[in-house]
Specification:
Strand content of chain B: 5-15%
Shape of chain A: globular
Helix content of chain A: 55-70%
Shape of chain B: globular
Number of strands of chain A: 9
Radius of gyration of chain B: 21 Å
Distance between the termini of chain B: 49 Å
Largest interface: A-B, 50 and 49 residues
Order of helices and strands of chain A: HHHHHHEEEEEEEHEEHHHH
Helix content of chain B: 40-55%
Number of helices of chain B: 10
Order of helices and strands of chain B: HHHHHEEEEEEEEHHHHH
Largest sheet of chain B: 4 strands, mixed
Oligomer: heterodimer
């Protein structure tokens, strides 16, 4: 049993962190957030490096790596709140590859893997999905219904209404499919993987929110001491770490099951999303609170994290919905052992 | 990342499972007497000892199996899964023995280890005092040199199993003129002397797991000093580190078993379809799995990198809080049984309140996380 990354995975993590540390600086993220623009230069660079296709099979032009590697990139991009459509594109690619037909994969995956095509994934009610991240930039959109059925459609076949969400580091639109597009026979499998990617992004958001908070409370002095010395502050920070590690451990487990133990994927993905959604909200809220008045200003960078966490927490269903899913799985398991 | 067991670990698990399938403790005595319960657990350790399963983590030269950390964790998981008690001499096996293996002389190892393993001599832990709980190093029990031995006087508290014990791991002050961490010595004190009086402490559960020790000029020979005079703090830390490592595993699997019980009861009563209970139970399931993952991660980090990550302090904190939530939720799901004296759920409800206090209060754990993991400055305590 080993919870560590392989040397290759560690390399991916280090390279990603170094690159984003230089390219997705707080100043540059702010510039794009305030203008509500995508960092197309960064997206081009990431595409040249093969990031969008990291988990897409080699036969479709990807790198053929697994969910663990994809999750590493999601976490690093979440950490910097980079204004690129990586997450929606990667989620669309996983759902198409793991749930769609061969023709569908051939049509969309090479473009999604190279970054030339942008994808988006939304949860729809009767063909209509609100706040679909990346949709205004996307050429292909996957919509998943509550009953697990899913369809992929070209952007021109959908009716799009751009919406400005509270998170200005990415584009959002409401999408109406009107029965267009192609049905995915096995949408649920890919959806589980998509949940893990969001969860990993949330872990990155939490980790950054905590580290910014620690820097601040070690530096900010009141009553002649750093405020981090007060237990009211330090214990909240400890709570933020606990939430972050709870999310990290369940996301890591889920990423592992995706490729190594697919029978447990549905449960593990629901656990990861439930834990990460709660952690994302609580930890970024804690970051604002621990920054005091500064934390409430537009000038401080913590609010980008809070806003990203809010959208991610709601994306593909919030914590409550995934706990309901877990309860259903537990009930099924009891039923199965009772009839066995 | 690979969350599967190796062939050797799987073989270890299967052997233990096989043994546990054929060996069970006696049925619990129906009458309430604590002595009968204790004897049953003592017999159980004897049976585990005969089967070579009393302390697999001990090196083979001392009668163990030289089990790895992972195998040792598997051991506790399997005992929990089989719902059998831990060996009765748990403090000797998990704390006293391993401490002697690090700090004890050859004579001490020769004399003490075998009877710990067989359960012949029970051990207890004389660390905490009425005025030295979280701030252990400020303890006041003192030992004064007298001929070829020491005379100890003082008071200890929260001493589990003292009424059954032959030996007490006693930390006492042997030099009052040096800084508080430096004047301590670790002794093995014979409990069978009139100078040591044990008074049971009645807990909110009504039972007496813990005791107060009143020590009035108890004799301790020189040969019973462990790790040298004045070195008691370091020796005590070895004991405390073992306390956090081993027990964590047994506890998380016990939590799992309790949660499975509550889920089964909820399902029986149709409450799994009630969104309120479904949500609360699913959250407990997520926490339980997270505790398991964090416990394993902490352990494999020790195996790979020689030191635990931040998980150790988090596991105890999350476990104790989760057990309290679980037993409280059980009151709503199980109903009257959870509030009736003598029912196991009411016992669990009350006992769980101790979880966030024993072995380091949650408040102290948060301080440890803040200072040692997050690197936050420490506020000087008021003088």
């Amino acid at each position: 049993m080993d919870f560590g990354f392989t040397d290759d995975q560690r390399d991916i993590q280090r390279t990603a962190r170094d690159l984003l540390g230089e390219r997705a600086t707080p100043a540059r993220v702010r510039e794009h957030a305030e203008a509500r623009t995508t960092d197309t230069a960064l997206w081009r660079e990431l595409s040249e490096l093969g990031w969008p296709g990291i988990a897409v099979s080699e036969e479709y032009g990807g790198q053929g790596l697994g969910q663990i590697e994809l999750s590493i990139l999601c976490e690093e991009l979440g950490r910097t709140v980079a204004p690129v459509p990586f997450l929606p594109s990667a989620m669309a690619a996983t759902v198409i590859e793991h749930g769609g037909s061969r023709e569908l994969s051939e049509r969309w995956l090479p473009g999604l893997a190279s970054g030339e095509t942008v994808g988006a994934l939304g949860v729809a009610i009767d063909g209509v999905a609100d706040l679909v991240i990346g949709a205004p930039e996307a050429q292909v959109i996957v919509l998943v219904e509550a009953d697990g059925s899913a369809r992929a459609l070209a952007a021109e076949d959908a009716e799009l209404t751009p919406v400005a969400s509270i998170d200005p580091t990415r584009s959002t639109a409401s999408v109406s499919a009107e029965g267009n597009g192609e049905e995915l026979p096995d949408g649920c499998v890919g959806l589980g993987r998509a949940l893990i990617s969001v969860s990993s992004e949330l872990v990155g958001v939490c980790d950054r929110a905590l580290s910014m908070t620690l820097d601040y409370v070690k530096d900010r002095k009141q009553f002649g001491v750093p405020v981090g010395a007060f237990q009211a502050v330090s214990h909240r920070c400890a709570q933020m770490l606990l939430e972050t590690e709870k999310a990290r451990s369940t996301a890591a487990f889920a990423a592992w099951t995706a490729d190594a133990d697919p029978e447990r994927l549905a449960e593990a993905a629901a656990m990861a999303k439930a834990a990460a959604s709660d952690a994302g909200r609580d930890v970024t809220a804690g970051a604002i609170q621990m920054h005091g008045g500064i934390g409430f200003t537009w000038e401080a960078d913590v609010h980008w994290l809070f806003k990203r966490a809010q959208l991610d927490a709601a994306l593909l269903g919030g914590a409550g919905r995934h706990r309901a899913r877990i309860a259903a799985i537990l009930a099924d398991r009891l039923g199965a052992s009772a009839t066995a | 990342m690979d969350l599967t067991f190796s062939e050797q670990e799987t073989a270890f698990r299967d052997e233990l499972r096989g043994w546990l399938a054929n060996n069970r403790p006696d049925v619990e005595p129906t009458e309430a007497g604590e002595e009968a319960h204790y004897e049953r657990r003592r017999d159980w350790q004897r049976r585990m000892y005969d089967g070579g399963w009393a302390a697999p983590a001990w090196p083979t030269e001392y009668g163990g199996r030289g089990a790895s950390l992972t195998e040792s964790a598997i051991y506790f998981e399997e005992l929990g899964r089989a719902r059998v008690p831990l060996p009765v001499n748990v403090l000797g096996l998990l704390l006293g023995g391993p401490t002697l293996m690090v700090w004890g002389s050859d004579e001490q190892k020769e004399r003490y280890l075998a009877p710990i393993l067989s359960g012949e001599e029970i051990w207890c832990q004389g660390f905490s005092e009425p005025d030295a709980g979280s701030d252990l190093a400020s303890l006041k029990t003192r030992a004064v040199k007298d001929g070829d031995g020491w005379v100890a006087t003082g008071q200890k508290v929260w001493t589990s199993g003292a009424q059954h014990s032959k030996w007490c791991m006693l930390v006492a002050r042997t030099d009052a003129d040096v800084p508080k961490h430096k004047g301590l010595t670790y002794f093995l004190m014979d409990m069978e002397q009139d100078a040591v009086q044990v008074r049971p402490l009645r807990q909110i559960t009504g039972e007496s797991e813990f005791n107060e020790l009143f020590i009035e000029e108890a004799r301790i020979p020189d040969a019973n000093v462990v790790g040298g005079v004045g070195n008691g703090w370091k020796v005590a830390l070895t004991t405390l580190m073992n306390e956090r490592a081993g027990l964590g595993f047994a506890l998380q699997i016990r939590l799992r078993a309790l949660l499975d019980d509550v889920i089964a009861i909820a399902a029986e009563r149709g409450l799994l379809e009630d969104p309120r209970y479904a949500d609360a139970l699913a959250e407990l399931h997520v926490r339980c799995e997270s505790i398991r993952l964090l416990a394993w991660k902490g352990l494999t980090d020790v195996e790979r990198y020689g030191q635990p990550g931040p998980e150790g302090s988090l596991v105890k904190w999350l476990w104790s809080d989760t057990n309290q939530r679980l037993t409280q939720l059980a009151v709503d799901i199980v109903g009257a049984d959870a509030l009736t004296i003598g029912a196991s759920w009411s016992y669990e409800l009350l006992r769980a309140r101790g979880n966030t206090i024993e072995g380091g209060t949650t408040e102290v754990l948060k301080n440890i996380v803040a200072e040692r993991v997050l690197g936050l400055p420490r506020l000087k305590a008021a003088a």
